[in-house]
Amino acid sequence: MIIKKLKTTIMTLLCGITLFCGSAAFALAPGDLNAHAAILVDSDSGQILFEKNSHDLMYPASTTKMMTALLILENHELNEIVTVDAKSPFATGSRIYIIEGETFTVEQMLYALLLASANDVAEALAIYDAGSIEAFAEKMNQRAAELGALNTHFTNPNGLPDPEHVTTAYDLSRIALEAIKNDKLREIVKTVSYDLPPTDKQPEKRHLINSNRFLYGTGSGNKIDYRGKTVDIKYDAITGLKTGYTNAAQQCFVSSASKDGKNLISVILKAQGNFLYLDTRTLIDFGLENYSSHTFAEKHALISYFDFEGNKKVKIPLYSQDEIKALIPAAISPEDITFEVEMRPGFDLPVKEGEQIGTIRYSAGGALITEAPLITLTDINDKSALGETTLFNRTWLSIDTSPRALVILGIKILLSLLLWRLIMSKLNGKSKRAQSPNPSGRQQAARTTRARRPTSTQNPAKR
User: Fold this and answer.
1) Which CATH number fits the domain that encloses residue 83?
2) Is 178 found in the same domain as 211?
3) In terms of C-beta distances under 8 Å and separation of at least 24 residues, what long-range contacts does 310-315 make, across chains too?
4) Is residue 235 located within the same domain as residue 174?
């Protein structure tokens, strides 16, 4: 079996994609940011758009709570009732002063965790989930590794100082990319305020304010100097996520942003004061102004064919598993974008429907833009791969279901029907003419007969 890599320009295979070219709005260098570490990524593709010291080990402070919230959302229902244990109320730092024996829903505690950054609530959730802080930290580390955050080590659910509690800007971006896939988490982190109702232990409601001033920061005390102007911290493009601060970590912020079809994640670690907001705004605007959003393929679009050489050479269709979307530098030339299809190492038959059998990678100027899995939409076994075609062979019956292919198929069917109707109309006309005598012909024959004189050998004059 020979595994081939296919490489060609996007313009020759993916029709209908328009790349908007132009010069970059502004350049960004690591020295332009105050933060020690930073990263900007496309949240649709995971593509890195900018980074500064992104793999340096750093303290994450309360940005840790993204992972805490993610684990709770993945393993519990929002309406579950949590009873506060005896240890959690003594957590230090930011808290809402929960009381032993007090009860909350998981949903209520998540609002307190992500808006008020409550350390006591983080510990209560951890103990509720895993029985202890230590056991929950093990689950956090396991999940981080699964997400590709390989240089992260958590020791607690809230980010309180610990020399062993470390991460990187890159790792936090991987965690954030997974976190924003959760609808409830996205809803919570964009909420400005939330009221916890009174409980049997606390007769007063608790009013929670989001620590992310990008959502509401206007007026006096909420200003930054940006591009020669004094502007409000509030920025509509930013949709949420998590702030953090400790003396050791300094200002930290993981943000999500969306505008004009572009979706971004930025991470700022160890910034000073309001530089947190200045650096975040600079990163987000760099992504919004220097990149265009493009969809390379819809979900389950036919991407290419792979020549599989078994007993007989056959072509195996490769489909996109999901929509393939990424940000393209505004200054790029369409001719510079290429893609490469690579089959799974050791690929062989049979394969099951939906199984990943390859990967497609899009690049420009030698730099990777994005990559995505390729799948088969049918079961393919040894017999179907050898070219057998029967009524029950699903491979034989399969069609390309991409929108463009369906439009072309519809046009072909319509033209075929029109041609069939035209042919049948002509055939029916000929058949009728052949079966029915012409009345006008009969009349003409009669007139001809009546006008003809009888033939005679006698002389008329002698008669």
Assistant:
1) 3.40.710.10
2) yes
3) 310/1, 310/349, 310/382, 310/385, 310/386, 311/386, 312/385, 312/386, 312/387, 314/385, 314/386, 314/387
4) yes
Residues annotated as catalytic are 62, 65, 117
Distance CA(317)–CA(307), nearest Å, equals 9
Peptide bond between residue 350 and the one before it cis (omega within 30 degrees of 0) = yes
pLDDT per residue as tens, the chain (463 positions)? 333 334 333 333 333 333 333 334 457 888 899 999 999 999 999 999 999 999 999 999 999 999 999 999 999 999 999 999 999 999 999 999 999 999 999 999 999 999 999 999 999 999 999 999 999 999 999 999 999 999 999 999 999 999 999 999 999 999 999 999 999 999 999 999 999 999 999 999 999 999 999 999 999 999 999 999 999 999 999 999 999 999 999 999 999 999 999 999 999 999 999 999 999 999 999 999 999 988 899 999 999 999 887 656 778 999 999 999 999 888 887 678 899 999 999 888 888 999 999 999 999 888 888 999 999 999 887 655 544 332 223 332 344 555 666 777 788 888 888 888 888 887 776 665 655 555 444 444 444 444 344 444 444 444 3
**pTM for this entry:** 0.76
Number of Cβ within 10 Å of residue 299's Cβ equals 12
DSSP3 helix / strand / coil % (the chain, rounded to 5): 35, 25, 40
Q: Does 247 lie in the same domain as 141?
A: yes
Same domain, 111 and 174: yes
Q: Dig out the tokens for 234 from the structure.
A: 């509030």
> Is residue 136 located within the same domain as residue 184?
yes
268 lies in the same domain as 314: no
> What is the domain count for the chain?
2
Return the structure tokens found at 398. Answer: 């399969």
Q: Assess if residue 324 is contained within a domain.
A: yes
Angle CA 87–89–116, to nearest 5: 135
Q: Is residue 65 part of a domain?
A: yes
384 with 237, same domain?
no
In a domain, residue 254? The reply is yes
373 in the same domain as 280: no
- Domain ranges, residue 58: 33-291
Q: At what angle do helices 169-179 and 65-75 cross, to 10 degrees?
A: 30
**Whole-angstrom distance, CA of residue 183 vs CA of residue 189:** 10
- Report whether 242 belongs to an annotated binding site: yes
